[in-house]
Amino acid sequence: MKHFLLNQVMQRSSEMPDAISNDKYYVVIAVIVVIFAGITGYLISLDKKIRDLENK
User: Fold this and answer.
1) Taking the alpha carbons of 6, 10, 15, 19 in that order, is the dihedral positive or negative?
2) DSSP per residue, 1-56
3) pLDDT in the model for residue 56
4) Cα(12)–Cα(2) distance, integer angstroms
5) How many Cα atoms sit within 13 Å of 25 on the Cβ side?
6) CA-based max dimension of the chain
7) pLDDT at 46
8) Closest CA to 30 of 18, 38, 41
9) pTM of the predicted model, to two decimals?
């Protein structure tokens, strides 16, 4: 029983770095998407403001 538990703990601890690195990839992708969405929204609002100034 003791060897079984030790084996389970060692197996899970070897899987942890993979899970942590995968989570980091998701965070990086999410940050890039948020930045891209923010820049796109800013450019659209800037285009609307410029269009309004041109029409005056």
Assistant:
1) positive
2) -HHHHHHHHHHHHHHHHHHHHHHHHHHHHHHHHHHHHHHHHHHHHHHHHHHHHHH-
3) 86
4) 16
5) 6
6) 82
7) 98
8) 38
9) 0.59
In the numeric block, the tokens 């100034």 are attached to: 53
What does the alpha-carbon distance between residue 39 and residue 7 come to, in Å, rounded to a whole number? 49
Name the residue type at position 52.
D
Return mean pLDDT, the chain: 82
Count CA within 13 A, CB hemisphere, residue 38: 6
Per-residue pLDDT tens listing for the chain (56 residues): 656 666 666 666 555 566 567 788 899 999 999 999 999 999 999 999 999 999 98
Q: Which two tokens stand for residue 10?
A: 């060692």
